[in-house]
Amino acid sequence: MKTVKNYKFWFCTGSQDLYGDECLKKVAEHSKIIVERLNQSGDLPFEVVWKPTLITNELIRKTFNEANADEECAGVITWMHTFSPAKSWILGLQEYRKPLCHFHTQFNQEIPYDTIDMDFMNENQSAHGDREYGHIVSRMGIERKVIVGYWDDPSARKRIASWMRTAVGIMESSHIRVARIADNMRNVAVTEGDKVEAQIKFGWEIDAYPVNEIAEYVAEVSKGDIDSLVQEYYDTYEMIYEGRDEDEFRRHVAVQAGIEIGFEKFLEEKNYQAIVTHFGDLGSLKQLPGLAIQRLMAKGYGFGGEGDWKTAAMVRLMKIMTAGKADAKGTSFMEDYTYNLIPGKMGILEAHMLEVCPSIAEGKIGIKVNPLSMGDREDPARLVFTSKTGPGIATSLVDLGNRFRLIINDVDCKKTEKDMPKLPVATAFWTPQPSLETGAEAWILAGGAHHTAFSYDLTAEQMGDWAAAMGIEAVYIDKDTRIRDFKRDLQLGSIFYR
Ligand code: MN
Questions:
Q1: Which residues of the chain are modeled with pLDDT < 50?
Q2: Which class is 8-173 in CATH?
């Protein structure tokens, strides 16, 4: 499936005509050099497009409206090379509707001590002009990213690259459509939510279908198509029979192949990028979709178990934000399952009944066929593996009744001390920051769910910026979290976001 458009970002330099043509010529030259270098660096996931210097109210307004209208433009990066009286920016900013980044940089890196004169000062006054511009953006209450640093410093470019992925998440959020195959699990609170408000806030379309409507697509998949996909499974993964009859095993695997093909056709035809299922509402499906959902997640679809459409949309969003990342380690639906509470080895064993995305796997991936302890269908086939180590983020979007809150926890993924040969599901194991005790305490105080959208490839800053752009509260649980301060954050949030 196609995950992301060929987005571009516009680079708009501000100035004014007070300094004469000679100065404006240099402003344009300098900003062209910066754009060229940004593009050549290979550090940015999307192209930067140079735009003519903005010096008047009319031109600023026109440029921002062109950015709105250009489908490929995912955001505007602004920089004031000289002074640019900020009232000229009011109307343009007022009408602008896409992500905005204020890159506070300066063309020259070092003060030219021997030659500096007042002409140089007037030409190179970002320190001055960017403050005037920043003032009006703040006064107008516009959400934007401010990135400070020298333009040819890799760390500044890295921050722009990171913001670009947030901007794409903001742009793409309103293109997420979730197919609800079954409702939320009965009596469960945290997977519920206001779907109308979710569409208003995030742009998500969340539609329900009777399970048998998608089951018909599965029933119509040809035997030939199933056979060739089963062959692909057998070529890709290791079959772990554990004493089961090999023909019977293959028949169980083939059921999942039919589900993968049928579900994908349904989602493609109806233009959905995320899906939820429910083990208690499977209609004529022979097995709970396990291996099939795992494969669809790896292709970029969002997923949530037991009807959890919020997490399904978040998994899709985070897959879009990380799409095409060169060194990506993976993004998945996940669930907090069971703890290790041994001092020095504390952590949460993460898994789900079946549906963990193999993009996070490390090492070999196997297929097992095992009974599901819940529901009344035949034993489903599933991919089993353990996950990569290193830092990641776990996010949970909850509906507090009158508003949404995004909870973001920095976590450290580790190998479990020993193998778990009897566990027939894929797992990850992580310790939340700042510790299991404080991390879990803060998570529970914030009302975080047992389901999460997890990624190795995004930062809390990126997700928090996305939440800010959506106008919802984000709370961070990380190395700096102290419960006393965290409770105050929640209290302040309840006033600010009421
Ligand atoms: Mn679950």
A1: none
A2: alpha beta
